[in-house]
Write a structure and sequence with these properties.
Blueprint (H helix, E strand, L loop, with lengths): L1 H16 L3 H4 L16 H9 L18 E16 L4 E13 L16 E5 H7 L5 E3 L2 E16 L3 E13 L11 E10 L7 E5 L7 E9 L7 E3 L7 E12 L2 E14 L1 H20 L9 H16 L1
Parallel strand pairs: 1-8, 1-9
Antiparallel strand pairs: 1-2, 2-6, 3-5, 4-7, 5-6, 7-12, 9-11, 10-12, 11-12
Helix pairs in contact: 5-6
Length: 311
Amino acid sequence: AMLRLLPAAAVLASWATGVDADEALCTLPAAPLACVGPKTSHEYIDQFLRASAYDKTLRPSCEDGGPTLIEAQFGLERLDMVDQKLGLITLSGRLNTWWNDPRLRFNGTSMGGCFDEVHLKGDDLVQWMWAPDLYITNLFSKSVDSLASSVTISADGVVSRTERMILKLTSKLTFGKLPFDKHTAKIGLGSYSQDISRLRLTSKGGEFRAGNSGVGIVAPAMTNYMWTIMGDSTEGFSTPGFVVVLDFLSTKYDELHLSFEFERKPKFHNEQVIMPSILFIIVSCIQFWVDPAIAPARATLAVIPILIMLT
């Protein structure tokens, strides 16, 4: 009975779609070709990273034997806090770094391989792979979300590392134009041990030289009750990176600055600081209309508003 219903179903399908009844009959898809090479990330680790030929203590060099080229970018998510007393800025976001390790190349799907990218956890990078020894030059403290750290290896050997973190950075804050003050939040990246003959550093898509280039910081549209991000729009904003070549004991090192500017919202400062201060001063002046014989009341009106302002 089932065999007799199949042609009828095909005819109905042809009436509905206008396709010939013979073409409406389904055909089984061709069996996929068997791929060659590792089929999972664990197999990739076994074949490429655990193999004795790979030494994670050796940095990957360019094909011409030159320095390892590192690109970096910070995906800003929030401007969390500005500590105006200690000069600290807290940021949340993702630090992304890219480099090419020819030893990790594999055949992609166009070459008969099983995939074009390998996705690993951040712990796999620390355990099995070489990684640049980058540090943040103006770091006060850092909190890294290990569950939100990942590594992606492309078939051409390009390694992409992503780490989600909360950074507390030291910054030079000046308040001479308060409440119309502007400040710069900067992330300084450098290498512990690799000079420019072994490692060059730049922002994403930038040039490996001193000066502005590439894209250093990217961010979506941001809202903050106290600060306005310079250049922010409904589509977000981006800023270039800036490379400084430092000379330390006759050895040169790259230092990459990822920065953006922000300014205070005067209305918030006026409403939350200036106006309350004026009201407290007016309250303290009420003591001059209090009977001079009532000293405790006069002292209370004079001192308590000041204590409130200080605390």
